[in-house]
Amino acid sequence: MTMHDNGRLGPIQWAIAGRPLPSEHVSGDQPIAVGIDEDAALFGVIDGLGHGPDAATAAMRAVDVLKDARKERVEVLVQLCHRVLANSRGAAITLARVDFATGTLTWTGVGNVTANLVAKAPTGIQIRSSASLAAGIVGYRIPEIRPAQVVPIRAGDLIVIATDGITEIIWTTLISPAPPLL
Q1: CA 112, CA 143: separation in Å to the nearest integer?
Q2: How many DSSP H helices and E strands does the chain contain?
């Protein structure tokens, strides 16, 4: 069962894609894309540890917390998820808040869900910034949450958040420019 969704939050167009492992019916990887208010939106990916129903349950618990508390700072959101996931298998979580009015991206993460800010440059596609991730498992053991990184964003920038299920080849394909039409 493949998961696809897309939409618009303020000036941001977003899209997600995912699928469970071939032998599974549900995925422990869950995205979130939700408006905070008219000036900001929250994006992220929650990767429940392992795979299958238990991983999906942990990830969906975190999604529910994030939707309910979306107006909190991203550091606070990670701590809220940590409390809710205490009796689950835990998760890796990376969150990105986009503030439309200030043109900034505020992000943080615990675990191995990578996040990169990708931009076009005269020399091609380049990664302008990457989220600094802390080692740990949300719901089991997390370090003291550092202040989130804040980076400027521009029209045309692309935020790519991916779990460890995305290989380097797939990731490179995601950010590569489309071949010219003949």
Answers
A1: 14
A2: 3, 11
Asked if 17 and 166 count as a contact pair (C-beta separation under 8 A), the reply is no
Q: DSSP code of 1?
A: -
Read off the DSSP letter of residue 28. Answer: S
Strand order in the sheet with 158-162: 124-130, 114-121, 158-162
Distance in angstroms (rounded) separating the CA atoms of residues 18 and 5: 9
Q: What is the pLDDT of residues 36-78, one digit of tens each?
A: 999 999 999 999 998 889 999 999 999 999 999 999 999 999 9
φ/ψ bin of 52: left (φ > 0), alpha (ψ from -120 to 50), beta (otherwise) = left
Outline where DSSP puts E strands in the chain.
3-9, 12-18, 29-37, 40-48, 91-99, 104-110, 114-121, 124-130, 133-134, 149-152, 158-162
Per-residue pLDDT tens for 64-116? 999 999 999 999 999 999 999 999 999 999 999 999 999 999 999 999 999 99
